Amino acid sequence: MSESAFLTEVAEHPAALRNLIQFYSGEGRTLLAQWKRLAGESASVVFSGMGTSEFAAQMIIAELAAAGINALTIDAGELLHYPRPVNGMLILISQSGESIETRTIADKMNGSVIVGAITNNGNSTIARIAEPVFLMCAGNEAAITTKTYVNTLAVLFLMADRGDEESALNRLRELSDSISEYDMDAIDRAAAGISDTEAIHFVSRGPAVVAAKQASLTFMEGARIAAAAFTGGAFRHGPFETVGKEHRCVFFIPGGNTFHLLRDMALEISEKGSRVVIITDQDADNFSDSVHVLKVPEFGEDLFCLCAAPTQELLLHAVAGHRGISAGEFRYGNKITVRE
Length: 340
Known about the structure:
By secondary structure, the chain is of the alpha/beta class. Helices cover 46% and strands 16% of the residues. The protein folds into two domains: 3-178, Glucose-6-phosphate isomerase like protein, domain 1 (Rossmann fold); 184-322, Rossmann fold, CATH 3.40.50. It has a five-stranded parallel beta sheet with strand order 2-1-3-4-5, with helices on both faces. Strand 3 (88-94), helix 7 and strand 4 (114-119) form a beta-alpha-beta unit.
């Protein structure tokens, strides 16, 4: 895997999103209607997968709850070996449709509950078993997760929409035109400030916690740095003791319910000596010169993770480069995990 392959796939975000929008503006509308009917009839909805596919749906859990749909996410490996009741609908998420845990659950639970899937591979094992199947439409992806992450979030955003479906698609259309707006010089400066470490914390709240978890996963995978993601509240309860001159932290701070809580915490730990990067859709003058602020397009808290994705991916690439690592290269694993 060449270093440029990762950058090429980051650059393909707009095209991948447009492919998805075209599909769900046409034949995919039937799938969305089917989902809304089945979800409304189910006692609960369980989303399950591994890695990114396990936590991505946390972006919409609160929105589904507000719509009267009881939903949760479960690690597919845990669900497989430590079963718990799934009373309603199971949505399996896997970009390949062939991850060993997800594939085994699809086969095991088919017939006992409604099994749906979100996948990038319409010919995969879980796609053959599941109904309905929501396609990511992200195209080929060889490096660590970029396009399939964003398109998974886009599918979930459409599944969470409680109002005008065309309005939701239009928001994605506008976002696809803006998603590649980023400041590479600012990203490089931020990377230089946090790459001299063996551990980074990623902090956020609400739907944006998904961005923090994705960054934690991919920085471990792509920059080989120990990483952990926390909600702002959880970070205060213990990890805050690591704050100081050796500490590195990235905050995801969208405008929304907890903007001030996250901003104030980021500035507080910066004043205590931590090196802090803030990824936000708000103006830089809301912060201070003591932190690196990376601005992303503003499309609302519910779409912040999609807007932030290219910036956090390019930050990963830059940090890896400072460490002499190619961000898209696997040492021990593969794109598809077929062994537990």
